[in-house]
Amino acid sequence: MSPRPTTGHVRRPAILTAAAAVIAERGVIGTRIADVAERAGTSAPGVLYWFATKDELLTEALAFSDDRFYAELSEQLAKLGSARERLERLVEVWPSEGDSETVLWMELWVRALRDPAVNATRAQFDARWRAAIADVVREGQMAGEFGEEDPEAFALTLGALMDGFAIQLALRDPAVTPELVKGHCMALVEERLGLEGVTDGG
Amino acid sequence: MTDRSARERILDAAVLRIASDGIDAVRIARIAMDARVSTALVHYHFATREALLAEALEHSYESAGDVPDLGGDPVTRLKAMIDQCLPLPGELERDWVLWVELWLRAVRHPELRPTAAKLYARMKAWFKTAIEAGEFGVTDAGAIADRTLALIDGLGLRALLGDPEMPLERARAEVWHALAGDLGLRDGAASGYVH
Questions:
Q1: What's the CA gap between A49 and A29, in Å, rounded?
Q2: Would residue A151 count as lying in a domain?
Q3: ipTM of the modeled complex
Q4: Mean pLDDT by 10 residues, chain B (195 residues)
């Protein structure tokens, strides 16, 4: 067994953070492994030791930021008293992730169009997000806050609506603002989950 | 052959290549071959690869933006419009690939954003007009149009990617279900789609 100390636990996150930034700037095709290595303060072989391809860098970088996203999200959600507030929080955090995050998702979609393995990974990310929405819906139903509605079907619709608006936000469509998006999403919540139109802000 | 027709052939060839190969993998030599012109002529018409690809996307969206008047009663017409906006097999599916490529491109290249914004504005106006013409008694036709298009993009993308959770039929039913709700229609009776 090698007595050498390992730096993997430091290197890997640094590479993934660097990869997310470089790919957001230049796209998967325009990204060179050497650029990621430079940004992460390592060498190209140092990157290739962990990641064989650029598609792998993209999906792993997204998985890495996704893990962080859900960790922060569950912390935030735990502080909120009602399921409705939790759903509102979900809606708020999604498009406000900002350009560089949305552009990575778009990279993933474009790669997924032509690569079944990337598409399978995309489906997993999607399922995770839908599960997060459906969980809050179920909590709300158990607490008597929400009416009868299939939580999975609702999550699919809300998730799709949010993606559709995230695209328009990322394109900086002058007609679309985060407030407007939130309004549309919460309108869907209230229609489908049988809530009263009483809101505590927004 | 006139210059104009060569130029259009190049743009048409570029559009088809972007749809089949992806914008990043497109090669100028290949487009020239498809358009049956020399690469020199491609370079004569388009100074850079970026310029050609940007114009090709715009070219494809100019025709995509020619919104047809689909006729029929308001409900039939709105349903036909939804179909026009979803990745139905064939031409619409190919257009959708371009659509997804445009999103990514326009986010990365701000000079393409006006093209994207123009297209969205046109599609929203198309839906808004049809909703108003239908006299459903709604006051916020614009907001309903916005939401319908966002839903079409989000659901259509999944259908395009072959998501088993979102076959095209379901995407279509979901969009109509949401729109019918916004318009105050009884979904089941009016929709004609299985939901």
A1: 20
A2: yes
A3: 0.83
A4: 77 89 86 95 90 81 64 88 90 84 81 81 90 91 93 95 92 93 69 38
